[in-house]
Specification:
about 600 residues, 20 helices, 9 strands, about 50% helix, about 5% strand, elongated
Length: about 600
């Protein structure tokens, strides 16, 4: 009989390590958002803020519809069906919750946020192991460092699907393993699964995951491993099929519209000094002012958030120390070996390519314009313009640099290495404290109500079509946009439909188009309610199309027009009369 000896000390250490790497991130998530954030009954999801209102409204509309094909297409959010891939409602998770009946238990956005915390730590631990780190304390400190990455924390202000940075860490792990140990069929399947996952989480992760996948393929060929060409060809076919099938299942066709194309290229970019210059840094005194951070640098007007790539003071110290050490070593040794470049040149090129793309077509160093590149045009511009916030593509580079810094520290004498990592983590935690404060404050309260609840909740306005003039992307006033986002969610909850909805692709009709029925009173039997959010004006402007109607009522930030609105406690006709119409009276409006 074969006997197996179990080392209780080693086994206990492994369990404690696993518990720490899981529970510390979960507790941190609870501290940030509340421990009920994943619950469908969490108060926050009754009126979420900013883009999260759109994501949640898209998900709720998806739940209300019976199963049909295409699976993720939702009617009633606009004039045409829209797939929830374009509402950033995390389609794979939404499908699972709907199919299993768990939609009354979990909210997909909150659940994804909760899962992302331990997955962020564990995925960094996986990358460190791929880089050769074995010490559990080092792995744990490295995993905790991944929870302090400023760009990751900043995504949690509202772009929840994009906070799945653990996807990038898993892709880097597979690529590093493949370069060091070989591109096995198991790793090929891992890449294919990861690409399929990306399609149903957020398409912005495709370029970085695709880049490190390409690096793994090229490293396999350059190292001339036996059977490399067959595995690489099989990997391309399998990965392409995984993406194509996922795109088809999740219905990337419905909801495609104008992307902004070349006109947005150069705006949402990374500053050349973005990874190194303090942004939202506590140590630099950049305090949270209730909407963003004091003293941040923004050369284009779109870099402070979409191009946010600051690594954090602790990570920077670690990376700079590692770079200085290896540069000195390379000089002493007269360079690095050919074998090193054969193995790691593909990854280096992938990271360089992502960095160049993150900087983009208009480069700035601080606020100084450095260069412009010719912008693409036509169909190519439309495809590239789909990734117009390309400043995000440095994320994978930043994580690899951080992991290399931790791996370097792990090769120092143990006490020295642990001290370096502990100090770096402490500095990083302090430097990112203002970022965490801003995120916590965002989730600590509901979005302030911007319209009278009775306007939508009244039985007279339930289950009716709502027409917004102008449509969402034709409205310039940010306060109006907030009113519309809140109303979209409320309208859906009472069975209503709309003609416009904010998505990742603007599929609304051109702004110059106004429906003819907008100018006249609603005919008998016409249940449409026309809403004009007034752009802060009392008369004229966007109110002009409805000035001659007699069935309109003012409700504070706008005007609602339609049949059977008289006597509804929401709208106030007396205010609407001042906007220029001969309008029917109704009781005073409720205060928002």
């Amino acid at each position: 009989m074969v006997s197996f000896k179990v080392d209780p000390k080693s086994d206990g250490s492994r369990i404690l390590f696993a518990l720490a790497a899981t529970l510390i991130p979960v507790v941190l998530c609870g501290f940030m958002f509340g421990f009920d954030i994943a619950s469908a009954k969490a108060v926050f999801w009754t009126r979420p803020k900013g883009d999260m209102a759109v994501m949640n409204a898209g998900y709720e509309a998806f739940l209300r519809q019976p199963w049909h094909w295409p699976l993720t297409a939702v009617s009633g959010l606009g004039d045409k069906p829209i797939s929830i891939v374009f509402t950033d409602s995390i389609p794979w998770l939404s499908l699972v919750l709907k199919a299993t009946g768990l939609s009354h238990v979990f909210n997909p956005i909150g659940l994804f946020l909760l899962l992302s915390y331990p997955l962020q730590a564990w995925s960094m631990i996986g990358l460190l192991r791929a880089l050769g780190v074995t010490d559990r304390w080092t792995l744990l400190l490295g995993g905790l460092m991944a929870l302090m990455v400023p760009a990751w924390i900043a995504r949690q202000f509202g772009h929840i699907a994009l906070s799945g940075h653990w996807i990038l860490l898993l892709a880097l792990t597979l690529s590093v393993r493949s370069a060091r140990e070989g591109l096995t069929w198991r790793r090929i399947a891992g890449f294919a699964a990861l690409l399929a996952l990306v399609v149903g989480v957020h398409a912005y992760h495709l370029p970085p995951v695709g880049a490190v996948f390409g690096a793994a393929l090229l490293a396999e060929l350059l190292q001339r491993r036996a059977g490399a060409w067959g595995r690489v060809a099989g990997a391309v076919v399998l990965a392409g099929a995984a993406v194509a099938v996922s795109v088809w299942l999740l219905d990337y066709r419905d909801g495609r519209g104008w992307t902004g194309a070349a006109t947005a290229l150069g705006l949402y970019s990374m500053n050349l000094v973005g990874p190194f210059w303090p942004q939202a840094s506590t140590l630099a005194g950049q305090a949270w002012n209730g909407s963003w951070y004091e003293g941040v640098m923004d050369a284009t007007g779109g870099q402070s958030f979409e191009g946010f790539q600051y690594l954090g003071a602790g990570a920077l110290l670690l990376v700079l120390a590692m770079a200085g050490f290896h540069a000195t070593l390379a000089v002493r040794q007269g360079g690095v070996s050919k074998a090193f470049w054969v193995r790691w040149a593909p990854m280096t090129l992938a990271m360089l390519g992502l960095t160049v793309w993150a900087v983009g077509w208009s480069a700035y160093a601080f606020k100084t314009h450095v260069y412009d590149l010719p912008r693409p045009k036509g169909e190519i511009a439309e495809v590239i313009g789909g990734f117009r916030a390309y400043g995000r593509f440095f994320w994978a580079v930043g994580y690899l640099l951080l992991a290399l810094g931790v791996a370097w520290a792990s090769r120092l004498p143990r006490r020295t290495g642990m001290a370096v990592l502990a100090a770096a983590l402490a500095v990083q935690a302090v430097d990112t404290s203002h970022l965490r404060h801003g995120v916590r404050e965002t989730f600590a309260s509901l979005d302030p109500l911007s319209y009278p609840v009775a306007l939508v909740s009244s039985p007279k306005t339930a289950n009716r079509p709502w027409v917004f003039v102008p449509t969402y992307y034709c409205s310039a006033n940010w306060r109006d946009l907030r009113v519309m986002r809140q109303m979209f969610q409320a309208i859906g909850r009472v069975g209503g439909t709309g003609n416009t909805f904010p998505t990742a692709r603007d599929s609304d009709p051109p702004c110059i188009v106004t429906r003819p029925e907008t100018f006249v009173d609603a005919a008998p039997g016409d249940r449409r309610i026309t809403v004009v959010v007034a752009d802060g004006v009392a008369r004229g402007g966007v109110l002009a199309p409805i000035a001659k109607r007699t069935d309109c009522h003012r409700f504070g930030p706008g005007v609602a027009c339609g049949r059977d609105l008289a006597g509804n406690p929401g709208p106030d006709a007396r205010e609407a009369r001042r906007a220029g119409g001969a309008l029917r009276p109704s009781p005073p409006k409720l205060s928002p």
